[in-house]
From TrEMBL:
<dbReference type="InterPro" id="IPR009291">
    <property type="entry name" value="Vps62"/>
</dbReference>
<dbReference type="Pfam" id="PF06101">
    <property type="entry name" value="Vps62"/>
</dbReference>
<protein>
    <recommendedName>
        <fullName>Vacuolar protein sorting-associated protein 62</fullName>
    </recommendedName>
</protein>
């Protein structure tokens, strides 16, 4: 067995079997979206090429570790390609009940439009390079190929086959280099169990290197395979680039409202939540104060926040705070007002305008104290973790080809994750559920206890999520506050959105004394030194700078952190 690939294979009898792989479907069929430009029409112009989204596939073969099913993937050929369009590579995903992704097929428009280049936008590869193969005496073999592009062109994805002969050069198209952007490996889907590192085969998902609402990179949905790739290496393939600055496939304002009403999640807070959300005007009208460095007294803020300092950068000169300590309303303001709460919506292009990101922000006047978990024991801290003004969000990613909900991003303190639509909980029709954690209000896709720290050691901060009578329905309680691509004046941004400073004062906690109290309650065999225990927890446990508003976050212009 030494020196052989420890992989099992599941190729079907024919090269491209007739049996189609099942695509995940949302609970309800998509509605007919309001008319307007090219949103939901199935095709998107990227300049000199036009692309369609392919979600129908035929399985070629599958492979997996011989040591278990946790590392199994299958390779697919896109099916149902419209006449005049060409695939750019094959598709791969971890094995599961449904197909969850897509690939793009492209049509050359360069002979129709005034092209700055004398070369066509698409071109056949010259030939192929065999990247990797694995033969099995019992189940056949599998082969991964890289298209070799002509000079001036880039391959967009790899191909898979069950035959040792090179695929036909008419199988795929390469794309002219000026119509592409660099891409990077984003998620490793498969790694072969080779005893020799030089023969280790890995399969990766890819994404554009530059991402955000001002970036033009378009993911083609293809895969990248290699036996020598290391993190940070430049890939041999590229992604597409949208040269059509008009972004015709983005939804108009009427379509945005239709999307939110159809997909707007219900956000559940924990049944023991004390610090509930509120609207921003409620916070201002109930005694929130603006402070300036060097002044002892705060200034009352009007309901729209129009007397807040606007624009600029967070220079640390201003911050907001709760009503004064001698004000009877201070405690009630800390606890929020869920009846007034609403989601503040920022709509922006994603992946070169082939997707729409609907970021939904929720405001809580106060973030409660943290709860520490050590093994089976939990300890609620007195002050550590508290801060004034808590902004959290989740983001819906919508396909501009169809208007289908593709995934949801759950923001979780210092990070977050994208969750495919097939792994979401739905409450009514196609509306997902978002769970906000107790006291901290981070968002999660399912109920339970999520640990921020070392889950392997069982040490960290608890994020407890559950359904309760406290919830906000974002399909009805929302306000669109920004959609820059629609043009100036289409969406009126509220004045408070231009406040770029801190929404709460900076707080430094006496973390050492709180940790010492925890240690005294631990069984002798679980006791640590204070320093050792401090190292196990996130650094923000011991100090909280006042949080900034949505427009100061990196993901306002950029992509989510994933």
């Amino acid at each position: 067995m030494l020196g052989r690939e420890c992989c099992c294979w599941d190729n079907l009898c024919d090269y491209y079997p007739v049996v189609e792989s099942k695509k995940f479907s949302l609970p309800l069929p998509l509605p007919k979206w309001p008319q307007g430009k090219d949103f939901g029409t199935g095709r998107i112009c990227l300049g000199e090429i036009e692309v369609v989204q392919i979600t129908k596939f035929k399985k070629i073969w599958g492979c997996g570790s011989s040591f278990g099913k946790s590392n199994c993937v299958s390779f697919y050929k896109p099916d149902g390609i419209p006449k005049g369009y060409y695939i750019l590579g094959h598709y791969c995903q971890p094995d599961g009940e449904h197909i969850t992704g897509d690939v793009l097929a492209a049509k050359d428009l360069s002979d129709v439009q005034d092209s700055p280049s004398k070369l066509p936008a698409l071109q056949k590869p010259l030939n192929y390079t065999l990247i990797w193969s694995s033969d099995s005496q019992y189940n056949g073999g599998g082969y991964i190929w890289m298209p070799n592009a002509p000079v001036g062109y880039k391959p967009i994805g790899c191909l898979a086959s069950v035959e040792p002969n090179e695929p036909d050069i008419d199988e795929v198209r390469c794309v002219r280099t000026d119509l592409t952007e660099n891409c990077e490996a984003s998620e490793m889907m498969f790694s072969s169990d080779s005893f020799f590192q030089r023969k280790q085969f890995q399969v990766w998902k890819t994404r554009p290197c530059k991402r955000g609402m001002l970036c033009a990179g378009v993911s083609a949905g293809t895969f990248f395979g290699s036996t020598s790739f290391s993190s940070g290496d430049e890939l041999d393939i590229a992604c597409l680039k949208n040269l059509d600055s008009s972004l015709h496939a983005m939804p108009n304002l009427e379509q945005i409202h239709a999307l939110i009403k159809h997909y707007g999640p219900t956000m559940y807070l924990h049944p023991d939540e004390i610090y509930l959300p509120s609207s921003v005007p409620w916070f201002f009208m109930n005694g929130a104060l603006l402070y300036k460095d060097g002044r002892n007294n705060g200034t009352v803020i009007n309901s729209k926040g129009s007397n807040l300092p606007a624009g600029g950068l967070n220079d640390g000169q201003y911050w907001l705070d709760l009503p004064n300590k001698d004000d009877a309303t201070r405690t009630s303001v800390k606890c929020g007002n869920i009846e007034s709460a609403e989601l503040y919506v920022h709509v922006k292009p994603s992946l070169g305008g082939t997707f729409t990101d609907i970021a939904m922000w929720i405001f809580c006047p106060f973030n409660g104290p943290a709860t520490v978990k050590i093994g089976l024991l939990s300890f609620t801290l007195n002050k550590v973790g508290e801060h004034v003004g808590d902004w959290e969000h989740y983001t819906l990613r919508i396909s501009n080809f169809s208007g289908e909900l593709w995934s949801v991003y759950f923001s979780e303190h210092s990070g977050g994750e994208w969750v495919d639509a097939c792994k979401l909980e739905f409450i009514e029709g196609n509306k997902p559920i978002v769970y906000a954690s107790r006291n901290g209000h981070a968002s999660f896709p399912h109920p339970g206890c999520y640990l921020q720290g070392s889950s392997k050691l069982g040490f960290g901060l608890r994020n407890d999520c559950a359904r309760s009578k406290y919830y906000v329905d974002s399909s009805s309680k929302y306000q669109i506050v920004a959609a820059e691509y629609l043009g100036e004046g289409v969406v009126a941004e509220p004045p408070w959105l231009q406040y770029m400073r801190e929404w709460g004062p900076t707080i430094i906690y006496d973390g050492r004394s709180e940790v010492e109290k925890i240690i005294k309650h631990l069984p002798f065999f679980m006791r640590f030194s204070v320093e050792s225990l401090i190292e196990l927890f996130p650094t923000e446990l011991y100090g909280e700078a006042g949080p900034t508003g949505p427009k100061e976050k990196d993901n306002w212009l950029g992509d989510e952190r994933w």
